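Hi F.,

I've been meaning to write this up properly since the lab meeting, where we talked about keeping a consistent format for the predictions we share between groups. The idea is simple: the sequence comes first, exactly as it goes in, then the structure tokens exactly as they come out, then a line or two of notes. No screenshots and no reformatting. I'm using this chain as the first example so we have something concrete to point to.
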Amino acid sequence: MNPVVADVSVAIGLSIAMAIALDIGFRAGRRAAMDEHAPAGNQVGAVQGAILGLLGLLLAFSFAAAGSRFVERQDLIAQEANAIGTAWLRADLLDEPARSELRAALQTYTAHRLSVRQAQGWEASALAEVDQLHARIWRAASAGVRARPELALLILPPVNEVLDVHALRVNATRKHIPGLVLGLLLTSSLLAITVIGYGCGMDGRRRWPLTLSLTLLIAGSLWITIDLDHPRRGLLRLNDAPLQALVFTPP
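Output, unedited:
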């Protein structure tokens, strides 16, 4: 399925689930209003406030964590582009053929990074290709430094950073909201909407403008949190402009 279609489907599914929970709560509240042993309205209001407070806390922490990870991943792209650009420029200090080989390896490596940018994670085949490219880059840099040892402190640090940032990016793609936390978020959201519907049912009025607005707001917050946590699949995506902006021409 197209990632954008899947992402929109998640948003629609969350909204429908919330609307169903709201309706179930309203019907249960309307039936409870005819029961003399049903909880009083002030009791329902207290429960509503407690559940919404807990939901707000969970959403705030989850949204902040997902947003921080999104920014971290974007910063790593810029850091990787800077390291590749620095290594490319310093390759000019090396003698041939190490100079041309290092630059060709860096150019191929960048093209590979852009070719797999749509992947949410790193498959075994992609990781194996990266290992081969890393070995090629290191061989070219090592050969140049062996010929001119005085350049080791200029050439090797940016090359080593290119290799290190890859590990950081792979690790960043594997950081997500734990499934248990996401399940708690969904459960709390549905429960909060159900209790709100229950209170409306006890009053015998649906209050669509208020309840539907709150339902859509909670569903939207959940959807954006999930979307931020998977920045290669949904509508909110990482920007590869720093890598695309690299210009591989001799200085």
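Notes:
The chain has eight helices and no strands.
Residues 1-251 form one domain.

If this format works for you, I'll send the rest the same way.

G.
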